[in-house]
Amino acid sequence: MSDIVNRLAAAERALRSADPHQLVDAVRQVLCEDYAAKSVDLLMADYGLTVLRSVPAPACPPESLPVHGSPAGRAFGAQEPFVEQCGDGQVRVHLPVSVRGDRLGVLTITMDSADRAAECRAELAEIAEVLGHEMIVAERDTDVYLRARRTDRLTLAAEMQWQLLPGRSCARPEYALGGQLEPAYAIFGDNFDWSASADRLMLYITDGMGEGIEAALLTNLGINALRNARRAGLSIADQAALADQAIHAHYRGHAHLSVLLLDLDLATGRLQVIDAGSPRMLRLRERNVTPVDFEAQLPLGMFEETDYLAQEFQVEPGDRLVFVSDGVYGVAAPGGETYGERFLARAIASAGLLPAAEVPGAVLRELSGHRGSVEADDDALVVCLDWFGRS
Q: Could you tell me the keywords of this UniProt record (predicted)?
C-alpha cells in the first residue's frame, strides 16, 4: 500500500510542478518510469464533441479519433476505463479525463500485459483525474489544450461564447448537467451558465438577439450582468431586473436578451423560474415528455426598469429537464414542417438511457437529420438537467 501511495504522490508532484504546456510530457515520464508504460497519449474532445484529438508535440499534426466508434471514444462516452487488446500481449488502457463531471478527453496508455494493466488500473485512473484538474489550471497560462480541441478555426463570436461557458457538463450527487452549442465553430448568440453552492443550483439559458459578433457581445453583457447580481447574493428576480437595466442602458431597447432563469433548491427540489423570452423547457418523467410552460415575461433589455416575478415548480427525483433555444424547436425540415414539440419529445425520449452529458449531442444529431443538412442556419442550444434528489 505504501508503494502505491508513494507512486501516486510522486505523480501528483510531477504534474503540479510541470510547466503548464508540458503536462503531457510530465505524465508520460511518470507513467513510463513508474508504471512501465510503452506509450502515453492525451486526446482532447473537440468543440463539436465528434472527435478526440491528440495533444501533439509542436512539430506534429494532431491525430483524431471518432468519439463514436473508437475504443478511446467508448471510454469517453461511458466515463469508465476501457482496455483494448493490441496483439503481442500488449493492451491500451483508455481512461476518461474529467473534472467534476466535465468531460475533457481521454488518456491512452499502452502497456506490456493485461495483467499489469489490471493491477494498476485504479492508480492510472486517479492519475488521469489529477491530470484533468491540472489542465483546468494550466489553461489560464497556455493555449496548448484549447488549440488541441479545434478541428477548424473558431469565429470570433464563437471564441467569445465558448470562453463564457462554465463547462459542458458537471455532476454532483443531487444532479447531473450537460450542454452543447451548435454550430460549434460558428455559434454567436446562444449560451448557458450555471453555478452551484451547498444548497442551490442556478442555471441560465440565454438566446441573444441578432447575429455574429453583435449577438455575442449582447450575450456577454447579459451573462456578466446576471453573474454580477448573482454574486451579490440577489434572488433571480433581482438578478433579472438588474441585468435588464444594464442591457437597456447600453442598447436603449434596440437589442434584448431572451433568457430562462432557474434557481433549484438542492434540499427540496423546489425550482424557481423566470421565463423571459424564447428558451423552452421540457420534462421527461417516467418515459413521458411534456412541455412545461411558465408565464411569459419580457426579455431582458426590452424596456427600462422591468419587474420580474419568479414562479415555482416542483422537480421529483428521476426527472430529466431539457432546455432548448428557438434554433432547436423552430428549425424547419426541407418540406417546411418545424421541429417543434412532437419531434423534440421523440428525440428526448430516444435519449432516455443516456447520461445527461450525452443528451444534448443526441438531440442535436436528431435535429440535423430533421433539417436535412449538417450545418445549422441558426444557433442551436440544448441543456439537460437530471435531478436525483438529496438523500
A: Hydrolase
363, 148 Cβ separation under 8 angstroms = no
Distance CA 153, CA 162 (A): 13
Lookup result for grid cell 419531434: 343
Q: Could you tell me the three cell numbers for 36? A: 512501465
Alpha-carbon span 369 to 217, nearest angstrom: 31
For 104, residues 6+ apart whose C-beta sits below 8 A from its C-beta are 44, 45, 97, 98, 132, 135, 136
356-373 residue pLDDT tens: 999 999 999 988 776 655
57-61, 127-131, 193-197, 232-236: which range is least confident on average?
A: 57-61
In the 8-state DSSP scheme, what is residue 300?
B
Residue 320, classed as helix, strand or coil, is strand
Bond preceding residue 62 cis, omega within 30 of 0: no
Torsions phi, psi of 27, nearest 5?
-70, -35
Helix residue ranges, H only, 252-358: 326-329, 340-350
Distance CA 199, CA 112 (A): 47
> Inter-axis angle of helices 359-371 and 340-350, to 10 degrees?
140
CA dihedral 321, 322, 323, 328 (to 10 degrees): -160
Beta bridge partners of 99: 102
pLDDT (mean) for 140-149: 95
Pairing of strands 169-172, 175-182: antiparallel
Q: Are 307 and 241 in contact (CB under 8 A)?
A: yes
Closest CA to 208 of 218, 196, 199: 218
Q: Which pLDDT tens digit goes with each residue over 30-81?
A: 999 999 999 999 999 999 999 999 998 555 666 789 999 999 999 999 999 9
Q: How many CA atoms lie within 13 A of 103 on its CB side?
A: 30
- Is residue 231 classed exposed, middle or buried when 0-12, 13-18 and 19+ CB atoms within 10 A define those classes? exposed
Q: What are phi and psi of 32, to 5 degrees?
A: -75, -40
Query: Cβ atoms within 10 A of the Cβ of 75, count?
Result: 27
Q: What is the pTM of this model?
A: 0.94
Q: Select from 353, 352, 326, 361 the least CA-distant residue to 341.
A: 326
> Within the chain, what is the greatest distance between any pair of CA atoms?
71
